[in-house]
Amino acid sequence: MVVLADTALRAMLQLITILNQCHHFRGFVYQDARFSSDHKSIEVAMRPRKGSAAICSRCHQPAPGYDRLAERRYEFIPFWGFLVFLLYSMRRVDCRRCQAVVVEEVPWGNGKHQLTNAYMLFLARWARRLSWKETAEAFRTSWEKVFNAVEHVVTWGLEHRTLGRIDAIGVDEIQYAKGHKYLTLVYQIDLGLTRLLWVGKERTTESFREFFTLIGDELASRIMFVCSDMWQPYLKVIREKCSEALHILDRFHIVAKMNQALDDVRAEESRRMRREGKEPVLKKSRWLLLKRRQNLKSDQRFRLRDLLRYNLRTVRAYLLKEAFQQLWDYNSPVWAGKFLDEWCRQVMRSRIEPMKKIARSLRKHRELILNYFRAQKLLSSGVVEGLNNKAKVTMRKSYGFRTFRALELALYHSLGKLPEPESTHEFF
Ligand SMILES: [Zn+2]
Asked: At 207, which helix (H) or strand (E)?
């Protein structure tokens, strides 16, 4: 028994040595470490170093002591399956500058959280690799504590990031819940720097305007390129706030719209054929028609060739869509414009309403589409699409994100390239 206690004591002294190595703060000392009574956690008592003054948490200056509060527990990074708590009684100071009795500031944590800063950074970094739920399970903590950790790190990051010069932005919407719940995401898409700048609730003019309030008129006026889809509220705000910028309708959005129209034609025709008792040639044709031809496997190519022999509206819509792809090969906006006009003329004669709707929309936004060719050499193409796919992955990994706030934090955390709070040691 005596031997065991002795071994335990020596182990605990080692723990303090390790803590001093990786989590050391001037002005404070680790006093002793012991197991909790149930032996599930380790408690490390801390005290102020003799002669070191407490720091006022309001003005961040040393101030004379006043009294001490009851002992608090700060949760630290778990150690070999044991929870670790730092125990400390906060001092209160009688601060002459603030003319008030104020609780002291401690470098390892803050008044709001039970977790130490080091543990919050540790959890937040894992929460970027795993889902929040998995992170909570892996470290035997709760989803809420992971949420708090990410919130702490993201808030710090947003306060400390530099917006600097922004040459190009892309705006996009993402559906995050049933019933038309959308987010507006604004990305910086400069050649050297791509990151998520802003997450907004809804996809209205009001919400998008908030982004411009955040960055201010000065920065907004220097934006040279804006990429977006054809969503009217976005177009309106862009005209209003970035009148000098070249506004580009993104290729990826146009292709997506075209695919949607083709799919509507196919679904409608397929239903009609079934109703009329015709041979179901369109059955399982969806991906044959939507995928790019070069991405099809050889048996799929064979089936597609077969399908194209039928005189169907779907086939005609497909051929129009495929013909449209040629647009992107142009370098000159003038020639691209001629091609676009001719394509729209053909479609308007096709009597296929969903395709005609696209053509009308393309005609209406002709100049914005041609801006793609005017800016082509200056923007990394497909970057908005790439970022938006990452945003969707973040969302998919996010079972357990019940609220807008949680999703907003997760998106900033994974795509914002935010700076992180400093740490005494690389725990992760
Ligand atoms: Zn003060």
From this structure: helix 205-221
